[in-house]
Design a protein that fits this description.
The chain is α/β, with parallel strands linked by helices. It contains 5 helices and 6 strands, in the order E-H-E-E-H-E-H-E-E-H-H.
Length: 154
Amino acid sequence: MQIWVDADACPVVIREILFRAAERTGVTMTLVANKPLRLPAAGNLHFLQVPPGLDAANKRIVELMAAGDLVITADVPLAAAAIEKGGIALNPRGELYTRENVRECLSMRNFMDELRGSGVNTGGPAALSQRERQMFANQLDRLLARRARSQRLE
């Protein structure tokens, strides 16, 4: 399993959790963004800069990821594409996307887009709470522990 991070919109606190997890487990992690980011010096951490443009990072992640890889994103279409390709998708609030719930999330996203398109101010997402940070860290730990168990069985 490799971790792919949709880093343009990933909160700094979530990136820090990811850096600590990558250091602890040795899992390879690649952050993809259209602007430069600073990473800790580690052989298993990589940065891939994509050109500016709508969904450029998303397209690159889907192109490079493999089945079984973990994608960290709040972008529902990217999560859906990752799942379709056999990957795992986790959002920064600790919610694991599944084949079942990603369809519902896409429907809600499209509905909210329609509302915004008609002039309704829907507001943005709430600030990331301490509880959500902990949910993310716990879910990430579970996924990495599952990876470690499967590697031991091989």
